[in-house]
């Protein structure tokens, strides 16, 4: 299946020339330092609030970026139609460089003040564009390369732009493709949720294309009146009569149409735009408290979404432009734990890095430090960590001078830390220091039916798009399962079922084996051994490369380390 490219036929050379001419006409000097307009933190928050819905749609498309990004040193940015960056996430090493260039939240990257750049030029030209190193008008920006795709509303209005940026030498073609896919995913969500939409019409060159984000998508009213369309469909609209098509097509049946295929699906009840629903205190409290510097403690079984929650909190927090440093305390080698956390001076101990090491805590300066599996931290390191949290300063190994650090801390564990305190394996004072606010993530088996349905629907849509749905009776079947692997396991089941159902109606025969009653101790031990065996095989296959093995097994590195430790 080849991807349809959505350019207006303009050669990049012409586009670049136009953009450089505009930059010149704005009176910009290539050798001068660019000086972007920057919103104050309060104005930035207001602007993010105003675009809350777009940002929440972007969040739904985020797994696409996160999966693709692993191992790549780049950042994803979302700017509004004015060029103001409202969200910045991704690799922290490149994040430092980006911040030095003011490629950070609150900064406005329009061409008037920043010259030719992917965000500003995509907005001026209303089309996707890559601006690579030397193609930037301002010299200071030539160390980076950026690819940007505009996002349009269902009536073709420019809403913003998604940009993926990296060091100039580290840019690749698939960055533009990923930015485009995310933009299309957001646009399709906006079309599907049009108020009063009763019919959704998909058009593509062939049947497989119907399930892809780049297929044409049109929302129609009950009577066939056009409500909105994505950018591909808008190209075709002049040649289309949607209400005639509505007459001609039968719901749910693939129908040849022109040189391609059409699929009509009915929405039984008109879709409502996903308005920000009033969140319960337990949804909003962690973010509010985090923004006030209160340490959060997340407790929950494996797969309940602790890591997912931390990433969301970081994206939504006032520290979103700062780094998120995630440390799996259980995966750190015992003899290096302190050097890794607190850093060390050059040659501080045998085997230490010659040039010294910053350590994870200092790397989290201005951002968030996520201490996952905190229950695994040895008692001696707990004492040092407590001192750092109390004094907000680190003394790297081999140094005497404390270095001030400003960070928020989120700790997580699947173990019951209060029980560990009672047993004497976890310091009580550290427990109280970390436990500014405890959020327990519920195991999936304890979800109420509406919450389970809503999560299942969200996962299905994220994994397979709008058309994926469960045949009647399947929701009950899924709801009745004990889900020992929690959301991770449900996600895997839905992923497999959706692929087998070609992204359409999922029926019983598409489901892989579902978790039955809780496992006996023997079954549990056998399963653990088999899992460990499989992980070791894949690790050997990948020559010990943990990231590669985790990707192949479709689990996080954190989970892989935990599995290797037999947890
Ligand atoms: N609220 C959610 N919405 C959608 N997907 C979710 C949600 N929570 C978790 N997931 C998905 O479930 C999987 C497991 O989540 P996550 O890694 O955050 O769990 P965890 O509690 O940190 O697990 P572990 O303790 O094993 O590391 C991930 O694929 C994640 O994307």
Structural account:
- There is one protein chain.
- The chain folds into five domains: 163 residues, GAF domain (Beta-Lactamase); 68 residues, no CATH class; 154 residues, 3-Layer(aba) Sandwich (Rossmann fold), CATH 3.40.50.300; 67 residues, Orthogonal Bundle (Helicase, Ruva Protein, domain 3), CATH 1.10.8.60; 44 residues, Arc Repressor Mutant, subunit A (Orthogonal Bundle), CATH 1.10.10.
- 40% of the residues lie in helices and 17% in strands.
- The protein has 22 helices and 21 strands.
- A five-stranded antiparallel β-sheet has the order 3-2-7-6-5, with helices on both faces.
- β11 and β12 form a beta hairpin.
- α3 runs antiparallel to α7, α17 packs across α19 and α20 packs across α21.
- It starts with 11 loop residues before the first helix and ends with a helix.
């Amino acid at each position: 299946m080849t991807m349809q490219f959505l350019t207006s036929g303009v050669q990049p050379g012409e586009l670049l020339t136009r953009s450089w001419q505009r930059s010149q006409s704005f009176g910009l000097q290539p050798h001068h330092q660019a000086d972007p307009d920057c919103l104050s933190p309060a104005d930035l928050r207001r602007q993010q609030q105003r675009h809350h819905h777009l940002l929440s749609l972007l969040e739904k498309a985020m797994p696409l970026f996160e999966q693709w990004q692993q191992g790549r040193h780049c950042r994803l940015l979302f700017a509004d139609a004015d060029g103001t960056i409202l969200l910045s996430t991704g690799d922290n090493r490149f994040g430092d460089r980006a911040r030095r260039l003011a490629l950070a939240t609150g900064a406005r990257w329009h061409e008037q003040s920043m010259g030719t750049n992917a965000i500003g030029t995509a907005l001026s030209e209303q089309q996707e564009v890559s601006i690579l190193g030397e193609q930037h008008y301002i010299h200071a920006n030539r160390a980076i390369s950026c690819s940007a795709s505009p996002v349009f509303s269902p009536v073709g209005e420019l809403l913003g732009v998604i940009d993926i940026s990296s060091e100039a030498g580290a840019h690749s073609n698939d960055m533009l493709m990923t930015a485009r896919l995310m933009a299309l995913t957001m646009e399709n969500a906006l079309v599907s949720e049009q108020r009063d939409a009763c019919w959704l019409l998909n058009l593509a060159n062939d049947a497989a294309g119907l399930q892809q984000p780049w297929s044409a998508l049109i929302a129609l009213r009950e009577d066939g009146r056009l409500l909105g369309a994505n950018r591909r469909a808008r190209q075709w609209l002049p040649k289309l009569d949607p209400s005639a098509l509505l007459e001609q097509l039968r719901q749910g049946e693939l129908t040849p149409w022109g040189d391609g295929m059409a699929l009509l699906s009915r929405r039984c009840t008109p879709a409502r735009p996903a308005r920000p629903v009033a969140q319960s205190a337990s949804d909003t409290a962690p973010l509010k408290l985090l923004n006030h510097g209160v340490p959060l403690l997340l407790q929950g079984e494996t797969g309940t979404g602790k890591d997912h929650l931390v990433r969301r909190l970081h994206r939504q927090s006032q520290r979103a432009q700062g780094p998120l440093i995630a440390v799996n305390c259980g995966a750190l080698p015992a003899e290096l734990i302190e050097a890794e956390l607190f850093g060390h001076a050059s040659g501080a101990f045998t085997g230490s890095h010659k040039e010294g090491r910053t350590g994870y805590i200092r790397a989290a300066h201005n951002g968030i430090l996520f201490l996952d599996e905190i229950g695994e931290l040895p008692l001696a390191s707990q004492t040092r960590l407590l001192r750092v949290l109390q004094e907000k300063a680190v003394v790297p190994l081999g140094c005497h001078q404390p270095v001030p650090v400003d960070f928020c801390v989120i700790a997580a564990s699947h173990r019951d830390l209060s029980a560990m305190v009672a047993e004497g394996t976890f310091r009580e004072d550290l427990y109280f220091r970390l436990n500014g606010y405890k959020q327990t993530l519920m195991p999936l088996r304890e979800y109420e039916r509406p919450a389970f349905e809503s999560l299942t629907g969200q996962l299905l849509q994220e994994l397979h798009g709008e058309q994926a749905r469960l045949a009647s009776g399947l929701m009950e079947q899924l709801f009745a399962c004990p889900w020992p692997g929690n959301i991770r396991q449900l996600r895997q089941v839905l992923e497999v079922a959706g692929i087998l159902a070609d992204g359409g109606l999922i029926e019983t025969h598409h489901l892989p084996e579902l978790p039955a009653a809780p496992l006996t101790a023997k079954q549990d031990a056998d399963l653990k051994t088999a899992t460990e065996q499989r992980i070791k095989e894949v690790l050997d296959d990948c020559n010990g490369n943990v990231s590669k093995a985790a990707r192949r097994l479709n689990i996080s590195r954190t989970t892989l380390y935990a599995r290797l430790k037999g947890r």
